[in-house]
Design a protein that fits this description.
about 80 residues, alpha+beta, single chain, globular
Amino acid sequence: MPKYYKVYDTKETLYVTVDDGGAVILKDQAGRKVFLSKYQAKLMKFGVENLLKSLFKDSDSKDVHVEELAEPPKVEK
């Protein structure tokens, strides 16, 4: 069963769907989508945690929230 998440701060919202096979779909408020295979998502996680960590140390990311959703989000264009 896929899992749905809403990742947001005061300026932007991103919807994340993780399917049973580990693939990830990212969708922004404008309806643009990015599809990542399980392997691509794993590389992305590694890259963000290890290579880009310094970019987010002193940023305004303290107000970012992650919320699990019970059903797929309704994104309007």
